């Protein structure tokens, strides 16, 4: 970490951008100083959760272990930041992966492919991609399926990448299973009554990154930002209120959950790099086990076919999926009057902070600047 720390102190461009570029480099080899919560130490401490706020039954219905068994951590200097190491029950991550690839990609949800493809071409991304993914080999020359071209999907209140706002007239029903999962995690972290109103799903490959940004478009910042990761690993950078503050680098592995609340809710953050999982296998072992046949009554977790999982597994061999869930409005709060003036039929622009091969798709100024 010595080289990274020295970079953070250099003059010229801001400290966050320098470290983003450092970890973004394909030949970056000095990763020993990146925090790994599987072996916490130093500035890491155990976080106390609200165990009584989530019954073991409700946790199980969401595919989660009892909250008393969760391994949750905080970071000195980042009040309100909580890192939860894979609290999912065996097999349950598979449900959320399948939902992100098969169900949440369906209309009326919005995705980046809608911006340059005819509506009828994006109705069933899963159906158009599954056979191609199942047969996919290791050659980089093979054409990519539509699912592999997917970069983001928005749920609930659909984020507008041009205006950086949510509006009341661009809203579709939020998935009930994902809302239930989010409510349990938020309650365990002390935020009872959390309402999952908007979601942004990001789909990463080994050549993808997420530029430096702050999630500030929600009108209620008193509620947390929830982040769920599945598949391959990544480096996550958590900075300060200003980009001149050098960020802390940490690994995120499959099943890990991050909660940004309080002071940490409006901090700069980024994902400079996606990495193969540390086990050196095609998929992390936490994804090996299938769902048990006896799911609890009222579970939001659904059984899926082995055929469907084979498609998901092939996708995840070179990819990572991240779900970020937000509450946009406080209880009883309304959008400002001007929010209703969005142009009818306006589509969100290409994701301004999602990068591939080091090139921004559009809105270059929003990538890592």
TrEMBL record:
Named cofactor requirement(s): Fe(2+)
Alphabetically ordered keywords of this record: Dioxygenase, DNA damage, DNA repair, Iron, Lyase, Metal-binding, Multifunctional enzyme, Nucleus, Oxidoreductase, RNA repair, Transcription, Transcription regulation, Translation regulation
Biased composition (Basic and acidic residues): 351-369
The UniProt record lists the keyword Protein biosynthesis: no
Name of the protein in question: Nucleic acid dioxygenase ALKBH1
Organism: Cairina moschata
Iron recorded as keyword: yes
Catalysed reactions, semicolon-separated: N(1)-methyladenosine(58) in tRNA + 2-oxoglutarate + O2 = adenosine(58) in tRNA + formaldehyde + succinate + CO2; an N(1)-methyladenosine in tRNA + 2-oxoglutarate + O2 = an adenosine in tRNA + formaldehyde + succinate + CO2; 5-methylcytidine(34) in mitochondrial tRNA(Met) + 2 2-oxoglutarate + 2 O2 = 5-formylcytidine(34) in mitochondrial tRNA(Met) + 2 succinate + 2 CO2 + H2O; an N(6)-methyl-2'-deoxyadenosine in DNA + 2-oxoglutarate + O2 = a 2'-deoxyadenosine in DNA + formaldehyde + succinate + CO2
């Amino acid at each position: 970490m010595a080289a990274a720390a020295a970079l953070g102190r250099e003059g010229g461009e801001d400290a966050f951008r320098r470290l983003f570029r450092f970890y973004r480099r394909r030949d970056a080899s000095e990763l020993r100083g990146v925090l790994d919560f599987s072996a916490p130490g130093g500035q890491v401490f155990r976080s106390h959760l609200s165990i009584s706020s989530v019954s073991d039954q409700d946790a199980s219905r969401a595919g989660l272990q009892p909250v008393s068994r969760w391994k949750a951590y905080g970071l000195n200097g980042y009040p309100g930041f909580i890192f939860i190491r894979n609290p999912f029950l065996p097999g349950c991550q598979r449900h959320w992966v399948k939902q992100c690839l098969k169900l949440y990609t369906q209309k009326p949800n919005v995705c980046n492919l809608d911006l340059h493809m005819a509506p009828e071409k994006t109705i069933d991304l899963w159906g158009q991609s599954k056979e191609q993914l199942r047969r996919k080999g290791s050659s980089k020359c093979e054409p990519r399926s539509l699912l592999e071209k997917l970069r983001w999907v928005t749920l609930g209140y659909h984020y507008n990448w041009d205006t950086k706002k949510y509006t009341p007239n661009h809203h579709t029903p939020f998935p009930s299973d994902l809302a239930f999962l989010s409510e349990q995690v938020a309650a365990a972290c002390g935020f009872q009554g959390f309402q999952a109103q908007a979601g942004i799903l990001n789909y990463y490959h080994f050549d993808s990154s997420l530029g430096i940004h702050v999630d500030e478009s929600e009108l209620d910042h008193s509620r947390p930002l929830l982040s769920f990761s599945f598949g391959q690993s990544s480096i996550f950078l958590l900075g300060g209120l200003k980009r001149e503050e050098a960020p802390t680098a940490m690994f995120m592995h499959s099943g890990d959950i991050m909660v940004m609340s309080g002071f940490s809710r409006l901090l700069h953050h980024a994902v400079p790099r996606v990495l193969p999982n540390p086990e050196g296998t095609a998929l992390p072992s936490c994804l090996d086990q299938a769902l048990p046949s006896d799911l609890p009554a009222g579970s939001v977790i659904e059984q899926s076919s082995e055929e469907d999982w084979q498609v998901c597994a092939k996708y995840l061999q070179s990819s990572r999926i991240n779900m970020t869930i937000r509450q946009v409005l406080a209880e009883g709060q309304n959008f400002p009057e001007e929010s209703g003036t969005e142009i009818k039929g306006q589509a969100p622009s290409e994701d301004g902070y999602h990068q591939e091969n080091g090139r921004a798709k559009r809105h270059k100024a929003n990538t890592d600047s």
